[in-house]
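Consider the tokenized backbone below.
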């Protein structure tokens, strides 16, 4: 592990002092981590993996191996204990899967079947198809938030650079910004960039660019309320800690959950923290779709018509106020299933 950390830091061109300053860790500790004389905490491992762009699983496995060896040493019962631990870990993974409802598991199985079929016909993917579906996604995601641009007007703004008479400057910027945010998440997908604080702030910065420059790419510093909801987001002084926990949760669960569940959870958790003054919904949906694209799925395009919007909001409200995410997970899974079906239909499969 010590070699991993030192090599990654040097490849990034960072000094131990700079790493310590960015992460808020004492410089002496960074040096000790690299020499192997001190073991970082789990939270520190997560932060180091993100900053130094080390594969989280690789670093975590190395950290756990050293931690286990340090604890058990050469004890005669070590191997027997390790076998028992393995059994318990495997059982806990099964338990996580068993917490999903039969309805959700059924839809996830259908989604996996559709994705397997799509994987066989990836050669039929085309820029034109992707571009058209991304255009629809921009239209629907903005419509959810009250943008009155039609699909055709959205197309004219993005592809023709036209100004639509009777539409506000904000509505034009929302269309342009969302389109560029999609380009950004596809770039992150191609690079296989892990989800972290920097990338979420970057997505949000694109969403509010030119609309609210002071708050674009920054966590809120005031209390907010969600229009039409009884849920009260956390106080502003808690946002940074909530977001830190958000990324820790992601790193801990990204390989344990079905990608659809992971994407939906990240959406719900982010919009529940409501870390921004504005643009929380669009940013949360983009984060969700980044996870889906990284795992080989297609964009889950939540419709902006009244019935779909109300079903979406009600499912979120239930998750936030009743601590019951079933409706929301089902809603996202069903949306992805329909998106996959439509994609296969378009390519003639």
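A designed sequence for it:
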């Amino acid at each position: 592990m010590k070699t991993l950390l030192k090599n990654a830091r040097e490849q990034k061109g960072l000094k131990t002092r700079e790493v310590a300053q960015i992460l808020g860790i004492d410089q002496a500790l960074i040096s000790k981590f690299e020499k192997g004389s001190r073991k970082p905490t789990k939270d520190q491992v997560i932060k180091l993996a993100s900053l130094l762009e080390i594969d989280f699983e690789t670093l975590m496995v190395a950290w756990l191996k050293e931690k286990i060896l340090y604890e058990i040493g050469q004890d005669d019962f070590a191997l027997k204990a390790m076998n028992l631990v393995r059994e318990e870990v495997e059982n806990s993974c099964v338990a996580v899967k068993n917490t999903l409802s039969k309805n959700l598991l059924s839809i996830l199985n259908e989604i996996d079947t559709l994705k397997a079929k799509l994987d066989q016909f990836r050669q039929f993917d085309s820029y034109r198809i992707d571009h058209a579906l991304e255009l629809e996604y921009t239209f629907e995601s903005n419509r959810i938030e009250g943008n009155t641009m039609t699909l055709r007007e959205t197309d004219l703004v993005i592809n023709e650079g036209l100004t639509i008479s009777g539409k506000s400057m904000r509505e034009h910027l929302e269309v342009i910004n969302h389109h560029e945010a999609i380009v950004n998440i596809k770039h992150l997908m191609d690079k296989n960039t892990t989800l972290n604080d920097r990338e979420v702030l970057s997505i949000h910065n694109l969403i509010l660019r030119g609309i609210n420059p002071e708050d674009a790419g920054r966590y809120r510093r005031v209390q907010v309320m969600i229009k039409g909801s009884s849920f009260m987001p956390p106080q502003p002084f808690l946002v940074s800690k909530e977001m830190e926990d958000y990324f820790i949760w992601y790193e801990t669960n990204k390989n344990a959950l079905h990608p659809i569940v992971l994407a939906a959870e990240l959406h719900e958790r982010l919009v529940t923290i409501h870390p921004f003054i504005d643009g929380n919904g669009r940013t949360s949906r983009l984060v969700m779709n980044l996870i889906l694209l990284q795992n080989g799925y297609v964009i889950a395009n939540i419709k902006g018509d009244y019935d779909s919007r109300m079903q979406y909001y009600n499912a979120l409200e239930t998750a936030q106020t009743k601590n019951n995410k079933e409706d929301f997970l089902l809603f996202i899974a069903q949306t992805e299933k329909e998106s996959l079906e439509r994609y296969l239909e378009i390519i003639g499969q």
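The chain is about 70% helix and 0% strand.
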